[in-house]
Design goal:
heterodimer; A: 622 residues; alpha/beta; 7-stranded mixed sheet; 29 helices; 10 strands; 65% helix; disordered N terminus; B: 74 residues; alpha+beta; SH3 type barrels; 5 strands; 18% helix
Chain lengths: 622, 74
């Protein structure tokens, strides 16, 4: 069960921009009902996507004629159970007209939101979508009867074929508040002088903590009663307008079940992860980044920038060093962000959006739920952890989908400590395969053990309890390319906007460390540890110092040392457990706070050398 | 018995949901106290899978343990 999300008091930025006289038309509906297809058709190309600070939730807005159209995240009802709902709630409450897209196949589920919006007294048009799919499944919906029962215009649509879109557009002018329950409305009227609108009154009555707080009134605990009554009304409507046959499970449903049962689900998951690794870890992180970072950025862009900067500052001064030196704010930031991160981020979001669109992710969450509960997480946490193998930086941001801060801390720490990112994985695999199968198996076994141990310890020691899994399983389907591309584009732009400042700051700090000689001092100070304790060559300390900057730099440094089997095992364990890269540290600080970052950072230094040394001594004794 | 003890593919009637948030979220999906759900099963290694009118939900085992159900014939 997800905990109540924080109350966002801010109003949607996009909504505030609406010019005088323009109506705010809000698209609302359950997840996966095809809302974005309506949005794209209504607004065309000029779309503004704004991210809500502190959430992974984004809201798109565009224009339709003189009116502003806002898309909202998919929700099953208006309340504050999670970030999506908090964001959608405020936009819905400010709407002049709501276009409510409903899925004809799951009408009894979708109409709960419809009826809630009607109870809020906001004018609604219902787009009865997916009629083709309903028909294919033998579900018949009487649109006219539905319109009579709800008291609002109902327009039959098939979104992928844009069928009925014009009718929805023209029906916006005929939107009306619809048929609510007289007794409920009488109670809302009684609250109006205190809270202003029926929408606010309804949410206060339903015990919404955020809306109640906004009006300085106590949240009344009438939710159960109102929800149950609304459900009764919705069921009555569904009984009137829907005829559905009782059928056994179709192939798609059975396939979905197979993905969640270990015997079939685990091999499919393993194959999926392998493919992801091949695409991101091998192709993009290797081939593509080799070109964008090595050839384009370091080959052309950096020399050009250096000479341009040198013309102004000369090449000898501190200013030149800071801007265009080894860790130059201009050169390193641009190379890292556009040469290294951009291709990885694009590939990442392409795969993630594909998985999201197909409906596979919630099934992976179901498959892994039981195992995850042993380390204080639930199945949802598998998503950031899988992503962590690609890039800890991005995966840390996706921990926002987890139920509470306790779970976010556990997941973030697990990734920062024990998950090697794709940048490292390439070098790790190359080194391990050079050392032979026994080393590879020992490495994997040690890492799985440490991962479980950290999870157990954190689950036991962090206060509070983790939330339980509660997810709905959307039907499996083939991803729609346009949807995947649009999502990737929006998320990539947002990611870059968020990280670029942090990268510039990181580069500046590194330059200062290097110019002041601290970096070199560190390199020397580490020598006793690497030689005496880990039994590695002295030059290995350079690898660790570089590991502060980028994890693959660290791993790559080891490649040239000519280590034997035991040394490779020790080096791999140590470098994997070692501190996350600068980019991750910055994002972890932003997401989890300074204290948590310091703890994780120092903890991983200790853990890396501790475990590495123990492995070295044990292997020496054997 | 509780939902997590439901045997694979059985129809069960929900008797009581002890968790407030879960109760509210279930009602949105059409599952309330008294509702007969089409089938329920506890996935090996996983949560409890519930199917109701073409809609499938997954509930963690601990949560499912707080939902009382009774088996119905057929």
């Amino acid at each position: 069960m997800s905990a109540t999300a924080t109350c966002h008091s801010r109003r949607s930025a996009a909504a505030a921009e609406a010019p005088a006289g323009a109506r705010r038309i809000v698209l609302a509906g359950n997840p996966n009902v095809g809302k974005s297809l309506f949005f794209n058709a209504f607004t065309g190309l000029y779309v503004d996507v704004s991210n809500f600070p502190g959430t992974t939730v984004s809201v798109s807005s565009g224009r339709m004629g003189d009116d502003v159209v806002l898309d909202t995240p998919g929700i099953y009802g208006v309340a504050s159970f999670n970030d999506e709902e908090t964001v959608a709630r405020d936009i819905v409450m400010e709407a002049d007209v709501i276009v409510n897209v409903v899925d004809a196949v799951h009408l009894d589920r979708d109409l709960f939101l419809t009826q809630q919006i009607i109870d809020m007294g906001i004018p609604v048009v219902v787009a009865l979508n997916m009629l083709d799919e309903a028909e294919a499944q033998g579900v018949l919906v009487d649109a006219e009867a539905l319109s009579r029962a709800l008291g609002v215009p109902v327009v039959p649509t098939v979104a992928p074929r844009r069928q009925g879109f014009d009718d929805v557009r023209s029906a916006v002018d005929r939107a009306v508040p619809g048929v609510s329950d007289p007794a409920l409305q009488a109670r809302l009227t009684g609250l109006l002088d205190r809270v202003g609108t029926r929408a606010d009154a309804l949410l206060v009555l339903e015990g919404d903590p955020c809306v109640s707080e906004r009006h300085g009134v106590d949240a009344t605990g009438r939710r159960d009663e109102i929800y149950t009554d609304r459900r009764r009304r919705v069921n009555a409507v569904v009984d009137q307008v829907v005829t559905q046959p009782h059928r056994g499970l179709d192939l798609r449903t059975r396939l979905g079940h197979a993905l969640m049962r270990p015997l079939t689900g685990i091999p499919v998951l393993a194959l999926t992860l392998y493919l992801m690794y091949e695409i991101i870890g091998v192709f993009v992180a290797g081939t593509v980044v080799g070109f964008t970072e090595g050839t384009v950025m370091q080959g052309y862009v950096e020399p050009f920038l250096r000479s341009a900067i040198a013309q102004v500052t000369g090449t000898s001064g501190v200013v030149y060093e800071l801007l265009a030196g080894e860790f130059g704010v201009v050169t390193m930031t641009l190379t890292y962000v556009f040469g290294l991160l951009l291709p990885l981020v694009v590939a990442f979001y392409l795969l993630l959006s594909t998985l999201e669109d197909s409906g596979y992710l919630p099934r992976i969450a179901a498959l892994s739920d039981r195992l995850m509960t042993t380390i204080g997480l639930n199945g949802r946490a598998i998503v950031p952890i899988i992503l962590g193998f690609g890039c800890i930086t991005m995966a840390t941001i996706t921990t926002r989908i987890l139920g509470n801060e306790r779970e976010r801390r556990i997941a973030t720490a697990l990734m920062a400590f024990a998950i090697p990112c794709s940048a490292q994985l390439g070098v790790i695999i190359a080194l391990a395969s050079a050392a032979g199968g026994a080393v590879a198996v020992a490495y994997a076994a040690i890492m799985v053990f440490i991962f479980g141990l950290i999870g157990r310890v954190m689950a036991k020691s962090l206060p509070g309890t983790s939330t339980d899994l509660f997810i709905d399983l959307p039907p499996l389907r083939l991803p729609r390319p346009l949807n995947v591309l649009l999502k990737t584009w929006h998320k990539t732009v947002m990611f870059l906007r968020e990280v670029i400042v942090y990268f510039a700051a990181g580069a500046l700090i590194l330059s200062v460390l290097r110019l002041s000689g601290v970096l070199e001092w560190l390199q020397r100070a580490l020598t006793p540890l690497t030689v005496g304790w880990l039994e590695l060559p002295a030059q290995a300390s350079t690898a660790f110092v570089m590991g502060f900057v980028r994890r693959d730099f660290g791993a790559a440094g080891l490649y040239e040392l000519g280590l034997d089997g035991t040394q490779i095992l020790v080096a791999l364990v140590t470098i994997t457990l070692f501190v996350p890269c600068i980019a991750s540290v910055l994002v972890i600080t932003k997401e989890r706070g300074k204290l948590f970052t310091v703890f994780t950072w120092l903890g991983s230094v200790g853990l890396a050398f501790g475990v590495g040394g123990v492995v070295a001594k044990l292997a020496g004794a054997l | 018995m509780t939902l997590r003890e439901a045997r694979r593919g059985r129809r069960v009637r929900i008797v009581a949901i002890a968790d407030d948030t879960c109760r509210a979220q279930c009602v949105r999906f059409g599952i309330g106290e008294g509702t007969v759900i089409d089938s329920a099963e506890t996935l090996p290694l996983g949560p409890v899978l519930v199917r109701h009118r073409r809609q499938e939900l997954c509930l963690g085992r601990r949560l499912a343990g707080r939902i009382r159900v009774e088996e119905v014939g057929g």
